[in-house]
Hints:
Layout: E1 2-6, H1 13-21, E2 24-28, E3 41-46, E4 49-54, H2 75-87, H3 93-104, H4 111-126, E5 131-134, E6 145-146, H5 168-171, H6 179-186, H7 190-196
Parallel strand pairs: 1-2, 1-6, 2-5
Antiparallel strand pairs: 3-4
Helix pairs in contact: 1-7, 2-3, 3-4
Amino acid sequence: MHVLLSTAYFPPIAWMAYAVQSNGAVLEANEHFQKQSYRSRMHIAGPNGIQRLSVPVERKSKEIKSIRISYSENWIKDHIKAIESAYANAPYFEVLYPDVKTLLNQRFETLWELNAASIALFSQWLELDLLKRETSEYAVVTGMKDLRGIHPKTQTDMNFPSYGQVFQHKIGFQNNLSALDLFFNLGRSSWDYLKTLK
Length: 198
């Protein structure tokens, strides 16, 4: 079955599992931007618990493909530092982190471009083409499994088996973080984890 997903900044594990397990993921390219959603936010597990990293955007437009990133504050430096603090001791950090740092330092103009690059990076790590299509118009009823509602404030009915996380001994297992958490901790085994989520 095809799934319809909203764009996401270094998407969460549930988003990735739906994309990996589908016959094809379609990206919603014609919706309006929603603040405080995964469209501009990712969650990682830091030494003191969950950290929410948000990309600041300019609100001159509402269309998701036209939302421009604001560089009035140095959020890139903050995100890079937070990712380093959270994952420097993860088993696959040294292998994967240079790709993340390179991506973040590219200074994309729009949120859509930044998110597309982060999804493409995850696709590259999985050796899989996750997103082949995007919508041509906005539709309420689509004939696909509609997952545009995946949101940090709503619980998913997915079951997340625990895996080793850097600060698990201190803060417990944290589920459905950005898939960065999965890749840094499990490396190539991330594929198996995403395929088996129910």
